[in-house]
Amino acid sequence: MAESRPAARPLSPHLQIYRWSWTMAMSIAHRVTGTALYGGTLLIALWLIAAASGPAAYDTAQWIAGSILGKLVLFGYTFVLLHHMVGGLRHFVWDLGHGYEPQARTNLAKYSVVVSGGLTLLVWLIALTR
Q1: Contact assessment for residue 33 and residue 84, using Cβ atoms and an 8 Å cutoff
Q2: What digits encode the pLDDT tens for the residues 57-92?
Q3: What own/partner pairs with CB < 8 Å and gap ≥ 24 does 19-25 have?
Q4: Nearest-angstrom CA–CA distance, 29 and 37
Protein backbone atom coordinates (compact mmCIF):
# COMPACT_ATOMS: atom_id res chain seq x y z
CA MET A 1 0.00 0.00 0.00
CA ALA A 2 1.36 3.41 -0.96
CA GLU A 3 1.99 5.92 1.77
CA SER A 4 -0.03 9.08 1.30
CA ARG A 5 1.69 12.37 2.04
CA PRO A 6 0.12 15.78 2.05
CA ALA A 7 0.74 17.85 -1.04
CA ALA A 8 3.56 20.36 -0.72
CA ARG A 9 2.01 23.77 -0.39
CA PRO A 10 3.71 27.12 -0.10
CA LEU A 11 3.83 28.45 3.43
CA SER A 12 2.45 31.87 4.20
CA PRO A 13 5.18 34.39 5.05
CA HIS A 14 5.42 35.25 8.71
CA LEU A 15 7.13 37.90 10.83
CA GLN A 16 10.50 36.18 10.47
CA ILE A 17 10.33 36.60 6.69
CA TYR A 18 9.35 40.26 6.52
CA ARG A 19 11.77 43.07 7.25
CA TRP A 20 10.37 45.17 10.10
CA SER A 21 9.11 48.57 9.08
CA TRP A 22 7.66 51.54 10.92
CA THR A 23 4.22 50.96 9.43
CA MET A 24 4.27 47.32 10.52
CA ALA A 25 5.28 48.26 14.06
CA MET A 26 2.65 51.01 14.29
CA SER A 27 -0.02 48.67 12.96
CA ILE A 28 0.75 46.24 15.76
CA ALA A 29 0.99 49.11 18.28
CA HIS A 30 -2.45 50.35 17.18
CA ARG A 31 -3.95 46.95 17.91
CA VAL A 32 -2.14 46.68 21.25
CA THR A 33 -3.23 50.16 22.35
CA GLY A 34 -6.80 49.41 21.32
CA THR A 35 -6.75 46.33 23.51
CA ALA A 36 -5.11 48.21 26.41
CA LEU A 37 -7.90 50.80 26.29
CA TYR A 38 -10.27 48.12 27.60
CA GLY A 39 -8.23 47.83 30.80
CA GLY A 40 -8.04 51.59 31.24
CA THR A 41 -11.75 51.96 30.67
CA LEU A 42 -12.36 49.33 33.33
CA LEU A 43 -10.22 51.36 35.76
CA ILE A 44 -12.24 54.51 35.00
CA ALA A 45 -15.46 52.57 35.56
CA LEU A 46 -14.13 51.33 38.91
CA TRP A 47 -13.21 54.90 39.88
CA LEU A 48 -16.74 56.07 38.98
CA ILE A 49 -18.25 53.23 41.01
CA ALA A 50 -16.05 54.26 43.96
CA ALA A 51 -17.19 57.88 43.57
CA ALA A 52 -20.82 56.78 43.60
CA SER A 53 -20.29 54.46 46.57
CA GLY A 54 -19.48 57.16 49.07
CA PRO A 55 -16.62 59.12 50.59
CA ALA A 56 -14.69 56.15 52.00
CA ALA A 57 -14.58 54.27 48.69
CA TYR A 58 -13.76 57.48 46.80
CA ASP A 59 -10.92 58.33 49.20
CA THR A 60 -9.46 54.86 48.69
CA ALA A 61 -9.70 55.18 44.90
CA GLN A 62 -8.09 58.61 45.03
CA TRP A 63 -5.29 57.30 47.27
CA ILE A 64 -4.57 54.51 44.77
CA ALA A 65 -4.69 56.89 41.80
CA GLY A 66 -2.43 59.36 43.62
CA SER A 67 0.24 56.79 44.48
CA ILE A 68 3.36 56.49 42.34
CA LEU A 69 2.08 53.26 40.79
CA GLY A 70 -1.32 54.83 40.20
CA LYS A 71 0.24 57.84 38.46
CA LEU A 72 2.38 55.55 36.29
CA VAL A 73 -0.73 53.62 35.26
CA LEU A 74 -2.57 56.88 34.51
CA PHE A 75 0.41 58.17 32.51
CA GLY A 76 0.48 54.92 30.53
CA TYR A 77 -3.26 55.09 29.95
CA THR A 78 -2.90 58.67 28.71
CA PHE A 79 -0.20 57.61 26.24
CA VAL A 80 -2.21 54.59 25.09
CA LEU A 81 -5.32 56.71 24.56
CA LEU A 82 -3.50 59.43 22.63
CA HIS A 83 -1.39 56.97 20.61
CA HIS A 84 -4.49 55.07 19.55
CA MET A 85 -6.19 58.35 18.62
CA VAL A 86 -3.23 59.51 16.53
CA GLY A 87 -3.07 56.08 14.88
CA GLY A 88 -6.75 56.43 14.05
CA LEU A 89 -6.05 59.81 12.45
CA ARG A 90 -3.29 58.15 10.41
CA HIS A 91 -5.83 55.62 9.16
CA PHE A 92 -8.27 58.45 8.43
CA VAL A 93 -5.64 60.12 6.21
CA TRP A 94 -5.32 56.83 4.33
CA ASP A 95 -9.11 56.58 4.06
CA LEU A 96 -9.05 59.95 2.32
CA GLY A 97 -6.64 58.46 -0.23
CA HIS A 98 -3.47 60.22 0.92
CA GLY A 99 -0.16 59.09 2.37
CA TYR A 100 0.31 55.86 0.44
CA GLU A 101 3.76 56.74 -0.93
CA PRO A 102 6.51 54.77 0.86
CA GLN A 103 8.16 57.82 2.45
CA ALA A 104 4.79 59.30 3.47
CA ARG A 105 3.75 56.00 5.12
CA THR A 106 7.00 55.86 7.07
CA ASN A 107 6.74 59.51 8.11
CA LEU A 108 3.14 59.10 9.27
CA ALA A 109 4.17 56.10 11.37
CA LYS A 110 7.20 57.84 12.91
CA TYR A 111 5.31 61.05 13.60
CA SER A 112 2.47 59.17 15.27
CA VAL A 113 4.89 58.13 18.04
CA VAL A 114 6.33 61.64 18.35
CA VAL A 115 2.94 63.36 18.34
CA SER A 116 1.34 60.97 20.83
CA GLY A 117 4.35 61.22 23.15
CA GLY A 118 4.32 65.01 22.91
CA LEU A 119 0.58 65.21 23.54
CA THR A 120 0.95 62.91 26.55
CA LEU A 121 3.63 65.15 28.04
CA LEU A 122 1.56 68.24 27.28
CA VAL A 123 -1.54 66.80 28.99
CA TRP A 124 0.49 65.87 32.07
CA LEU A 125 2.31 69.20 32.22
CA ILE A 126 -1.03 71.01 32.14
CA ALA A 127 -2.52 68.66 34.73
CA LEU A 128 0.43 68.93 37.12
CA THR A 129 0.64 72.74 36.96
CA ARG A 130 -3.00 73.27 37.89
Answers
A1: yes
A2: 999 999 999 999 999 999 999 999 999 999 999 999
A3: 21/106, 21/109, 22/105, 22/106, 22/109, 22/110, 23/105, 23/106, 23/108, 23/109, 25/109
A4: 12
| Exposed e or buried b per residue across 65-78, where buried means at least 16 C-beta atoms within 10 angstroms of its C-beta | eeeeeeeebbeebb
* Half-sphere exposure for 95 (CA within 13 Å, toward CB): 6
What CA–CA distance (Å, rounded) separates 104 from 109?
9
pTM (predicted TM-score): 0.83
| pLDDT tens, residue by residue, 117-126 | 999 999 999 9
